[in-house]
């Protein structure tokens, strides 16, 4: 989950709200949220757009793990200025295969 509208940012940078891996596809298809916990690499940080910063978009991106449920991603050192394209490089992920977006304003 990323926020592309958080400041300061350069092209392609986001604020990182969450990274999870190894969510069983069977659980996603069954829509059983209790079984979709996966492994938290960066725990969930809820949206908190600053007052006066306008509308922020929050993107949940789902990638398929080509190597099955044994994906151990590197954890970004900080949440700010997260460069998604660089982080995805060389990770053998397919997609995004699904995405959702919601908007929040202070």
From TrEMBL:
Family annotation (SUPFAM superfamilies): PEBP-like (SSF49777)
Highest rank taxon of the organism: Eukaryota
InterPro entries reported for this sequence: PEBP (IPR008914), PEBP-like_sf (IPR036610), PEBP_euk (IPR035810)
Protein name: Phosphatidylethanolamine-binding protein
Organism taxonomic ancestry: Eukaryota, Metazoa, Ecdysozoa, Arthropoda, Hexapoda
């Amino acid at each position: 989950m990323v926020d592309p509208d958080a400041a300061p940012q350069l092209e392609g940078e986001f604020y990182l709200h969450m990274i999870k891996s190894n969510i069983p596809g069977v659980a996603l298809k069954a829509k059983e949220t209790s079984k979709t916990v996966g492994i938290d690499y960066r725990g969930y940080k809820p949206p908190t757009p600053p007052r006066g910063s306008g509308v922020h978009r929050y993107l949940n991106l789902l990638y398929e793990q080509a190597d099955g449920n044994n994906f151990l991603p590197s954890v970004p050192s900080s949440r700010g200025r997260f460069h998604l394209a660089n982080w995805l490089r060389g990770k053998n992920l397919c997609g995004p295969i699904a995405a959702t977006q919601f908007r929040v304003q202070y």
